[in-house]
Design goal:
alpha+beta, four-stranded antiparallel sheet, three-stranded antiparallel sheet, 3 helices, globular
């Protein structure tokens, strides 16, 4: 099934025009996984570009299923964390941004940057980031 995923990123949520390729075009592969049907690019505060390319498989935010009614993986109005999760998944898969290698902490920090930039509620953004960092710390030997 092909869907344009509602990202809840309105022009006022992207005042510096850091995103290109919206709205997201994805194909839902199963209950959890999606395939990107058009690339989407994010420009960080530092000016580095990360482009999640067409064909990339991802799951948006890794929210426990029991909480999907409150925090669906794609994000909610006013909390577009799904976009941050997409770019984060891309960075974790490729370990690079703009051609340079990055650490897992840098990828996690970009996840937080995107959530704050797009207007996610700060308490939610920092909570999601803390869970991501805890997961990263648990995986330290695999990719630092």
């Amino acid at each position: 099934m092909k869907d344009d995923i509602v990202t809840y990123i309105s022009p006022e949520c992207d005042p510096d025009y850091r995103f290109t390729g919206l709205p997201l075009r994805v194909k839902q592969l199963d209950k959890r996984m999606y395939e990107l049907e058009r690339g989407v690019t994010y420009r960080t505060e530092a000016g580095e570009l990360s482009t999640a390319r067409m064909g990339f498989h991802f799951d948006f935010a890794s929210v426990p299923r029991a909480l999907w009614w409150l925090y669906p993986p794609t994000g909610t109005k006013g909390n577009p964390y799904g976009m941050a999760a997409l770019i984060h998944d891309w960075l974790l898969t490729h370990h690079k941004i703009g051609g340079r290698s990055i650490t897992r902490k840098e990828a996690d920090d970009i996840f937080l940057e995107i959530m704050l930039y797009t207007g996610c509620r700060k308490s939610l953004a920092y909570t999601m980031w803390a869970f991501v960092r805890a997961n990263s710390m648990a995986r330290l030997g695999r990719w630092t």
